[in-house]
Amino acid sequence: MKITIAYIEEPPFGWTDHDGSPMGADVELAGVVVRAIGYPRIDFQRVTFEELLPGVMAGRWDLNVPIFVTPERSKSVDFSVPVWAAGDGFVVLAGNPKGLDSYEAVARRGDARLGVMPGTVQQASALDAGVQDAQIISFAGQDDAIEALLAGRIDAYAATALGNRAIADRRGHDRVNAVAHVVGASVPLGGFSFNKNNTALRDAVNAELRRYLGSADHRQRMAKYGFTQDEIDPVVSR
After folding, report:
1. Which residue of 99, 150, 189, 222 pairs with 82 in a disulfide if CB–CB is 3.0 to 4.6 A?
2. How far apart are CA 27 and CA 8, in angstroms?
3. Partners of 91 in the β-ladder
4. Gap between the Cα atoms of 101 and 7, Å rounded
5. Going by C-beta distance under 8 Å and a sequence separation of 6 or more, which residues neighbour residue 37?
6. Tens digits of residue pLDDT in 87-107
7. This prediction's pTM
């Protein structure tokens, strides 16, 4: 049996290795789970963030790697049980020259430019916080946004705090810093997404996730990618 899973370039969640192999925390979790439910053959398909939901809705692949669960997205696709919790943050130039540590801080500075991937919860959160459309610049991928940051075309890139830590580690802390936002009582949760007609696959994945999440094997695998109890325990407790 074969299954097709879409992933995006967003370390540490997913990326393509130098030999073309898909890597990352979400990619590895997906592989463990779908093999456990009877799919020994997996075709990982690299796509852009904007393609994820339309692609699974059209049946071009079977499921997407985890993204944030929102009420709006849930109108179009079904989500699995949550698999991680992740607050937002920025990647900024080393020293954070403009002192950007929240969406509100960007909104207060008319000269601040924020990079996002279109359609993300970060883009919506920035707009909700008062950041103007003219301050927001969209990028198809993470690497493009970081190159723009280094070139001075944007002042911050918004993504998950966990992902931003990986960017800073990879790019060098002498060049960029990861700045986490203060996390409130409710931490955003991410889950796999499915075509609404594919309830059998959704239910099988959920059953395995409920068994596997929080296990020693799960925690060990995710720790390789920088996941801590802060990203895992909120979904296990559910």
Report:
1. 189
2. 9
3. 157, 178
4. 29
5. 204, 205, 207, 208
6. 999 999 999 999 999 999 999
7. 0.86
